[in-house]
Amino acid sequence: MSMSRSAAPGPLTGVQVLDLSPFLPGPFCTQMLADLGASVIKVESPRGDPARTLPGDLHDVANRGKRSVVLDLKAPDGQALGRQLAGESDVLVEGFRPGVADRLGMSYSAVQAVNPGIVYCSVSGFGQTGPLRDSPGHDITYLAASGVLPLPGEWGAREPRRPGVPLSDLAASSYAAVAILAALYRRKETGEGVHLDLAITDAALAFATVRADCCLAASVLDEHLHPTNELFKTADGATIALGAIEEHFWQRLAALLAPEFPTIAEPRFATATDRRTHGDELSALLRKAIRTRSAPQWLAAFEEADVPAHRVLSVPEAARSPHAQARGIVAENPLGHHVTFPVLYNGAPLGRSSGPAPALGADTEHVLAGDQVQRDPVPVAGHRAFGALFAPVNRAAPGYLTAARGLGDRPVHGQVIEVESDHLVVAGQGLAQRFSTDAGPGPVVKAAADGAVRAAR
To answer: Is 68 among the domain residues?
Structure first.
């Protein structure tokens, strides 16, 4: 599909990020940091990030190349290990409602006590202050609260419509990434950490003011629309986007259409103000005209006339397009392809290619055994705090993580995909293994080197 790029060092190489955030706003922010070279450790509960269970690729897109560590932050041992990880990190991103990080022992004050220079970013729906701070929400409710939804996106639209992408979540991700980079830059000068408080609704409101000033009257919320800046159906059923806003583009469009549709050259469409005043008539005329030819015919004509137009593509079509391939922003990973950080740096992609999103808890033992945290030399496999790190077997259910000792006494981390009264099946590390659970509640499942499966306390 595209050329493969090695995981070359990025500009943030050496920066460690601890990601405690679920779903999209925080993870997409830390994904951008990972694309730029940061090492990102994603801390998940035994149940995992809820995004793992959502349909589609949201979790995979927002967590490429990260390492997954499972901690039960509701348990004292898990909290202590979480703070140790924070003590070794440059950045911490949390995505809980206000007060939750405090209850999990990972508040800014608790983390700052072990790491005064931490850049701590809280991403929440309504921020850490204000009357709505404790309210639940998701992208659509944040868009509703920020004034985005009433803004029409096409000529003649009157009712609120949601965008096809989670705009408020992505706005928050973008502002969070910029704020984190600014805080890291400032820390080089001062040595001081900071608590960044980012409300998703604030980010969406900032985006909304591009279309509507904060004090704009509701009656003129469509002033950004143009009947010549729209989507149009063609004779072959395709949809093309036309962007003839500026006067010179309008003149070229009118010259192209006038031989067959002379009405378009009438004085009532002469100026931009005239075209908006008579927008309904002009919109109907353009739709009638463009339905007379196929998309390839129109796109060839628009290209020759130098009028901005493009066929509406699906995401796979856009990623496979010759232009995307030439730009080099579609990179390969072991499970397929992904769009990396979409900026070229001296002509080359700035973002590094990365692997797929990790399996739940895939890196727990590696990280906690000393790769990132200095801790007492207690073997993780025999540590009774295992219950703080992994879901006990007696709580296992499809989608939960389990901690098991596999063949050769090697740890197996993965997701439970089948649960019965006497066994469970764990998928992870490229294979599925069956473990007995008949030793009573809460055992750590263990398999001997000879392959005999048994349960051990």
So the answer is: yes
